[in-house]
Amino acid sequence: MTARLSLIGGSSHAGKSTLGEVVANYLGCRCISTDSLAKHPGRPWRDPPELPPPHVVEHYRDLALDQMMQSVLAHYRSMWSPLVLPLIESGERLVLEGSALLPELVSQLDIQHVRAIWLVAAEGVLERRITAESDYESRDPDARFLIDKFAQRAVAFNRFVGEEASRLSLQKIEVGRETLVNELLQLCLEEPK
Predict the structure, then answer these.
(1) pTM surpassing 0.90?
(2) What InterPro entries has UniProt attached to this entry (predicted)?
């Protein structure tokens, strides 16, 4: 990967942060997560006994899946010009990872030496990762409901990103249950076909 700038997009729990750090370490540059720039209601769980903030509970409790998708897409689009694009245009050699790297926005870039990929999780991968990380089995029914809604949105966003990357002829890498980060690193370093 001879790119000055590496962009890694995809859904929550697809492995963007882990891969971003590995790629940045390999290339000897900084990794920045778009999550650090602006927060949308994220994971609806915290380590016990801490409860998620009320706005996060309300978001997952009250919105239907299509409303959650509209909300998160509007949030990511609103971040692009003021927060994400300046990092991309800064000229700094870096790895930028996060769900806010929507294929539709990245496809409009006219910057040399940018390498962009999207991690797209195979069926069942996101649900398994979310269940494990959230300690789902130990949660009460209300918390499980919120986690289930978060997982539904993650799966829908994963499908959206995969379809958009295909539609725009952008590189995507499928992440399976047993995919190792070193395998993903090698795929990132290969020249696109």
Answers:
(1) yes
(2) P-loop_NTPase
